[in-house]
Amino acid sequence: ILDAVKTTYSNFKSNFVKRLSAEVPIASSPITTRWRQSQTRDLAGDSFEEEHSTTYLPEASGSVLKIMPEKETLILGSYKEPLKTPIKGNFETNNSALHFCKAPHALDRGWNENIASKGQKCLNQLFSTQKVSQWVSGKMQLCEQSQCVWKGCRDEVRDESFHLRRFNGINYSILQPEVKFHLTGLRNDYYLNILDWNFQNLVAIALGASVYIWNGENHNKIENIDLTLNCNYVSSVSWIKEGTCLAVGTSEGEVQLWDVVTKKRLRNMLGHLSVVGALSWNHYILSSGSRLGRVYHHDVRAAQHHVGTVHHQQAVCALKWSPDGRLLSSGCSDGLLTIWPSDLGAKAHVQPLKVIPQPTAVKAVDWCPWQSAVLAVGGGMKDGRLHILDINTGQTTQTPSMNSQICSLIWLPKTKEIASGQGIPKNDVTVWACPGLARSGGFFGHGGRVLHLALSPDQTRVFSAAADGTACVWDCCESFSPSGSSSFLTSK
């Protein structure tokens, strides 16, 4: 009798996963994708599946909008859950829903369903074990100035860099931030979009696996959405324009809708198999983009919410609907800026209106509030320029290279200017006067790249969040003034 072969548990686990991988295709991504995730979610999730196929069009032709028919969509009624997510049951809970989440070239028909369920349960347990060690608890607190014990704030003397610096001899008054925050759990990830400020003056910022909601008027914390039992981290947030519904994208590919007034989760829309790094609303159409290059369009009013899909070659890191809702811009890590029409369901295949190559990844993007066809785009490290594009005429204006990565940007409608957040070496917020894009001012004080910017509903304050764990609210309205008009940047 042959002696039994001895093996370690780690080798056994590795071999087991490889065997399953050989039978069932898994999305190719450097990010944990929560393969076939619906059975590990609560039954409120409306699921469709992110394709694994990588048959893309050539880069020159851009991307194609493909309207996907609804297939194998699981709708099990509405569900509401308190802000503090309750502890889930064990992984056997949703094994009955396994067949609703097939991958392309799905499970061999000869497979015994019971074997498949047991195998998937084991994989889910492995993924859960890997996830626990990666959780980062988020925290957001006001800086108490001289009494602050936060590292870097212990000196009573304020750093003079917390000022509005002057350019071209313009005599700007010294400006301190209205308020400063210290952040724990803010991810230093260029490809995420985790800050938004809505018309009800509520600020949402994702820190680790939680979303903190703050009152933008009195800077009091209102609530936090805790998703530590659902994901490694929150990767994107976006407020609906018509109310207090907050869309939350996660590292596990979920898109959740939360009502911050009732403190309930309204919906959980599945389908993505990778990090959802970008979200954008167009009335009741929510667009979500993932690192596998998919953009899904959801009609949040419908039971079968999936109304369209865009395929990109690389990660989607920017999504913005124009103010009039007629155009959608999508930016990718491969440097393609794509402009789409709004008739998502008009045809089976909708061609993009424009595909505009950029020198670097397209992440910092924002539409002009007073000219719906004008788009501002920030260049990455290899570019370092701010570009203003007129989609209708093709006219372009750009700044000289700043030799710095532009991580974020917003328009300042009251003064007809643009604010852009940069990385090293200055880690500042620069304000540009339109139309000539001359520097008119800037906010200094962050010790890391300024990853996120948001504008208050009254358009007078700017919220900046940086990779060093600091956030500031700046009163910009009184300090900057209009600098003229332009042939394609005039107020209407």
TrEMBL record:
SMART domains named among the record's database cross-references = WD40
Identify a single GO molecular function assigned to this protein.
ubiquitin ligase activator activity
**Record keywords:** Repeat, WD repeat
- Repeat positions for WD: 227-268, 309-340, 443-475
Q: Name one GO cellular component term.
A: anaphase-promoting complex
Q: Please report the stretch or stretches of sequence annotated as the CDC20/Fizzy WD40 domain.
A: 185-474
The reply to whether Repeat figures as a keyword in the UniProt entry is yes
Q: So what family is this one in?
A: Belongs to the WD repeat CDC20/Fizzy family.
What's the name of the protein? CD20B protein
What species does this protein belong to?
Crocuta crocuta
GN (gene name): Cdc20b
